[in-house]
Specification:
The protein starts with a strand and ends with a helix. By secondary structure, the chain is of the alpha/beta class. It has a single domain, classed as P-loop containing nucleotide triphosphate hydrolases (Rossmann fold). A 6-stranded mixed sheet has the order 6-7-8-3-9-10, with helices on both faces. Strands 2-1-4-5 form a 4-stranded antiparallel sheet, with helices on one face. Helix 3 packs parallel to helix 5. The structure holds adenosine-5'-diphosphate (ADP) and magnesium ion. The site of adenosine-5'-diphosphate has 11 residues, from strand 2 and helix 1.
Length: 233
């Protein structure tokens, strides 16, 4: 489960000799997603979606409030335990963040190798996933030799390959056509049915309509709307 309790995030910005300015990026954000829940994360560009996801995968720390991720208090985690927790989280970054010197195959294999899975298992899972996302013929390609959509599909495969308990995706269909977006949704809903908690930030109205799930709507750095509260009555 994921729980935010009155979470705020400020960035401090030093500008020459003037006093340090403090920017409120997120304010008083509270919500709860039960284990196995699915939420769309919506809101205008600049509203704070990426920042909210960063807090969920422990790449940013709140200036205020409490965050619980997969039952763990995210604030007081020693580095080692934070790293272990992060391994249970699959993330699709808006800018993919693939490793440029590794092939498509090795990028997707990386999380499995870090988890010390056998090479036989790695081969079978990675090959199957890359086939599923339509990249069977491009296992040896480096990211720079692939299109934006192809890189996005590799980053999706990498995020799901270890069957994470929490799956976070930041506008994962930005470079995909409708058919590929639907395949992605099949992958995500499959993972979700097996108990993974899912949060997907998106601007894709068609997907939100075709795959009904409660929305978390962010506006100007705060939670404007938690549709799960409405759905629950
Ligand atoms: N590292 C940073 N330093 C200062 N401001 C930032 C930083 N990252 C994001 N912001 C600001 O925080 C706000 C929310 O950004 P972001 O979470 O990326 O929004 P979204 O993903 O919804 O487009 C924006 O106004 C953005 O300019
Ligand atoms: Mg963003």
């Amino acid at each position: 489960m994921v729980r935010f309790d009155d979470v705020g995030l400020k960035y401090r910005r030093a500008q020459g000799k003037s006093p340090v300015e403090s920017l409120d990026i997120l304010r008083s954000v509270s919500f709860e997603i039960p284990q196995g829940g699915f939420r769309w994360l919506t809101g205008a560009s600049g509203a704070g979606k990426t920042t909210l996801l960063k807090l969920m995968y422990l790449a940013a720390h709140p200036s205020q409030g409490k965050i619980e991720i997969l039952g763990v208090d995210a604030a007081k985690l020693p580095v080692r335990e934070a790293a272990l927790l992060r391994r249970r989280i699959g993330v699709v970054f808006q800018d993919f963040r693939l490793l440029g010197h590794l092939s498509a195959y090795d990028n997707v294999a990386l999380p499995m190798r870090l988890a010390r899975r056998s090479e036989a298992q790695v081969k079978s899972d990675v090959t199957e996933l890359l086939h599923w996302v339509g990249l069977s013929g491009k296992l040896d390609r480096k990211p720079a030799e692939l299109s934006g959509g192809e890189q996005q599909r590799i980053s999706i495969a990498r995020a799901v390959v270890n069957r994470p308990k929490l799956f976070l995706a930041d506008e994962p269909t930005g470079n995909l056509d409708d058919l590929q977006a639907d395949r992605l949704m099949m992958l995500i809903t499959g993972l979700n049915k097996m108990g993974t908690t899912v949060v997907v930030a998106t601007h894709n109205q068609r997907l939100v309509k075709d795959y009904p799930a409660p929305r978390l709507e962010i506006a100007h750095g705060t939670l404007a709307f938690d549709e799960a509260l409405v759905w629950a009555g």
